[in-house]
Amino acid sequence: MSLLLSSLVIVLLRPGLHEAAYYGRQLADGLPGTFNSSWLLYPPVVSTSALLFAMVLAVFKPRGWVWSMT
């Protein structure tokens, strides 16, 4: 599950890396620039949701509530 989530974050963030690098170069050169950072919100939200879902499945088994040490 962790490997899947790590891969998804990398795949989702990679398309915007060139745009972010270009924005950083503009700022370093002292030029004004605009950068739409709203797309950076989705990967952490999706990853956190998937990890919470995995945790819920680990605690509350699909066959019922299991807290025993068996």
In words, what does this structure look like?
This protein has 70 residues and is mainly alpha-helical. The chain has one domain. The chain contains 3 helices and 2 strands. The chain has a two-stranded antiparallel sheet. A hairpin with a 2-residue loop joins strand 1 and strand 2. Helix 1 packs antiparallel against helix 3. The mean pLDDT is 76.
Gist?
The chain has 70 residues and is mainly α. It contains three helices and two strands.
Defining key terms:
3 helices, 70 residues
Q: Supply the number of helical segments.
A: 3
> From the alpha-carbon coordinates, what is the Rg to the nearest angstrom?
19 Å
Which structural class should the secondary elements be placed in? Answer: mainly alpha
Helix content: 55-70%
**Can you summarize the main beta sheet?**
2 strands, antiparallel
- Gross geometry: elongated
Count of folded domains? 1
N-to-C SSE string, H for helix and E for strand: HHHEE
Question: Roughly what fraction of the amino acids lie in strands?
Answer: 5-15%
Number of strands: 2
Arithmetic mean of pLDDT: 76
User: How is the largest sheet built, in terms of strand order?
Assistant: 1-2
Low-pLDDT windows of residues = none
Instruction: Note the gap between the termini.
Output: 24 Å
